[in-house]
Design brief:
This protein has helices spanning about 65-80, 105-110, 115-125, 135-150, 170-175, 200-205, and strands spanning about 1-5, 15-20, 35-40, 60-65, 85-90, 160-165, 185-190. The protein has a seven-stranded mixed sheet with strand order 1-3-2-4-5-6-7. Helix content is about 30%, strand content about 20%. The protein has six helices and seven strands; from the N terminus they run E-E-E-E-H-E-H-H-H-E-H-E-H. Helix 1 links the parallel strand 4 and strand 5. The chain is globular. With about 210 residues, it is α/β, with parallel strands linked by helices.
């Protein structure tokens, strides 16, 4: 995993963000209000250490897309328990025809990956603005790692956001995946990338 700070201050609160595949921090650039925001991406391996969180009084974790399963694997591996845990546009079993994306489709995405196909993916995801830079070999390796890692144990998500127009992780697959957690699910009438200008981190962590 790779990490970088999107915002830093003397605040005792931290928002830890597990992003999606290959999109970088662009989906979150419009959100306001996070005084300390640490962004994590690059899920080929999960053993890279993150900074010491002991100085923070509160740590909230928001996981997006493939970051949902990855954050869950990481939490179960490290034993860390955030104060609040939120899933957006993803499931615990991302490589699944019923509860995520069919593994054959993920493999095809990896095998056929190019700058042009990635630009199309970004449009389907609903990402606005410029297409992020893409390291094709690393992005391919990450997709295969997600398949190989398999489903994650639920660490206990407090809120689950499901977009109703998701063309990346199909909406019906997300609904099936979280059926047993229906009381924690909220839907949003958006594509896969649901974050919009004028919104705050607090709204998504609510």
């Amino acid at each position: 995993m790779r990490h970088r700070w999107l915002a830093r201050s003397d605040s005792p609160d931290l928002i830890l963000v597990f992003g999606g595949w290959a999109l970088g921090s662009a989906p979150f650039s419009c959100l306001t209000g996070g005084e300390n925001v640490l962004f994590v991406e690059g899920y080929t391996q999960l053993d890279d250490p993150l900074p010491d969180f002991s100085r923070f009084d509160r740590v909230d974790l928001l996981a997006f897309s493939f970051g949902v399963a990855t954050a869950s694997h990481w939490l179960n591996q490290t034993g860390m328990r955030p104060d609040r845990l939120v899933a957006v546009s993803g499931t615990l079993n991302p490589a699944s025809a019923e509860n995520g994306i069919a593994p054959d489709m993920i493999r095809a995405t990896a095998d056929q990956l190019s700058q042009a196909s990635f630009a199309k993916f970004c449009r389907r995801a609903g990402l606005s603005g410029d297409v992020p830079d893409l390291d094709i070999p690393s992005a391919r390796a990450e997709l295969h790692a997600v398949i190989d890692r398999g489903p994650a144990k639920d660490p206990g998500f407090d809120r689950i956001w499901i977009p109703t127009r998701d063309r990346i992780v199909p909406t019906n697959a997300q609904q099936a995946a979280w059926a047993s957690r229906a009381d924690r699910v909220r839907t949003v009438k958006t594509p896969h990338v649901p974050f919009r200008a004028g919104q705050s981190w607090a709204e998504w962590l609510a």
